[in-house]
Write a structure and sequence with these properties.
340 residues; alpha/beta; Ubiquitin-like (UB roll); Elongation Factor Tu (Ef-tu), domain 3; Rossmann fold; 3 domains; 6-stranded mixed beta sheet; 7 helices; 18% helix; globular; binds FE2/S2 (inorganic) cluster
């Protein structure tokens, strides 16, 4: 297999060379060489990896968005290293120091502003970021260092990007390290966060949306709904929020507020427990009206436990309807989030 030599010129004058295999992206080749080029989404969305190609030929593909790299920037030789596939040897100027490119993901600190407990089901944690508001995409998550435990837990933002006040919806787990810390957490306490992370985020809204939330998997949808409201979206959005017990239905007021803010937003709740007197009992797939699938012209987003992802997949197979896209994030209480 052929490869190309890519020179990376850092702003402190250091040049490093990496071998890029045919078809390989520059960001990946650099990473193999243990060089952490600036990046965030690695998906052509954020523009963080923007560099300048000083020489050489390459293909940028068409999987990135205009916000990340405009036609004008492209014409001026700017590139996204997460999309750039060299077709010859290249020289690239990196707008960062060589030392910065060996660092890991960014961390930031925040101060507890509010801890709102919802029975034994969940906790809403609000933090005030120390410094600039974190940049993230609606749907993404961060790792929170649980104070005093030496452990980290991953949580999706339930707040929208652009504010220094950030929030999370955290499932209460008896004996869990985060749950235990939250019992004594008070305004003014400090926490460290790392991120943002994840490929589960709201894409361009071009067709009806179906949001499927399992338990505290509601969090990223609150962030997405706020982004849609701010954009004055007219698109149809339907949310189905499924939980195990009646008490697990939290932040209903927050969801209801979007019925007023978004003209084509509807939602329903579903409770699984047999003893519940909720009008819709069972699983979300049992309460998914056919019109939600819009004959497949729909983008589906799901955040919930792995069995829910499997059940929804099976539902699509059985119904013979393939949604235009299906983005999901599986979570288990003590494991990292897994997006697809
Ligand atoms: Fe986000 Fe490249 S890392 S566009």
């Amino acid at each position: 297999m052929s490869s190309y030599t890519i020179a990376l010129n850092f702003e402190d004058g250091v040049t490093r060379f990496v071998e890029c295999n045919a078809g390989e992206k520059v960001l990946d080749a650099a990473f193999r060489a243990r060089i952490n080029l600036p990046m965030d989404c690695s998906d052509g969305v954020c523009g963080t990896c923007k560099c300048r190609a000083e020489s050489g030929s390459y293909d940028l593909g068409d999987d990135y968005i205009e916000d990340a790299l405009s036609e004008d920037e492209k014409a001026r030789g700017l590139v996204l290293t997460c999309q750039m596939v060299p077709e010859s040897d290249c020289v690239i100027t990196v707008p960062a120091s060589s030392a910065a490119c060996k660092t890991e993901q960014s961390t930031f600190s925040a101060t507890v502003a509010k801890v709102e407990r919802h029975h034994d089901a969940a906790v809403v944690l609000e933090l005030e970021v120390d410094g600039a508001p974190p940049v993230f995409l609606a749907g993404q998550y961060v790792n929170i260092d649980v104070p005093g435990s030496g452990q980290r837990r991953s949580y999706s933002f339930s707040s929208a990007p652009g504010a220094s006040s950030i929030s999370f919806l955290i499932k209460k787990i008896p004996g869990g390290v985060m749950t235990t810390w939250l019992e004594s957490a008070r305004p003014g306490h400090k926490v460290e966060l790392t991120g943002p992370l994840g490929s589960f985020y709201l894409r361009a809204v071009e067709r009806p949306l179906l949001f499927l939330a399992g338990g505290t998997g509601l969090a990223p949808f609150l962030s997405m709904l706020e982004v849609l409201a701010r954009a004055n979206s007219q698109q149809k959005v339907h949310l189905i929020y499924g939980v195990t017990r009646d008490l697990d239905l939290v932040q209903i007021d927050a969801i209801e507020a979007y019925v007023a803010k978004l003209p084509n937003f509807t939602f329903s709740t579903v409770v699984a427990e047999d003893t519940s007197r909720h009008p819709r009992k069972g699983w979300v797939t049992q309460h998914m009206p056919a019109e939600c699938l819009n004959d497949g012209d729909v983008d589906v987003y799901l955040c919930g436990p792995p069995p829910m992802v499997d059940a929804v997949r099976q539902y699509f197979d059985d119904s013979g309807v393939t949604p235009h896209s299906f983005h999901y994030e599986k979570f288990t209480p003590n494991a990292a989030l897994v997006a697809a």
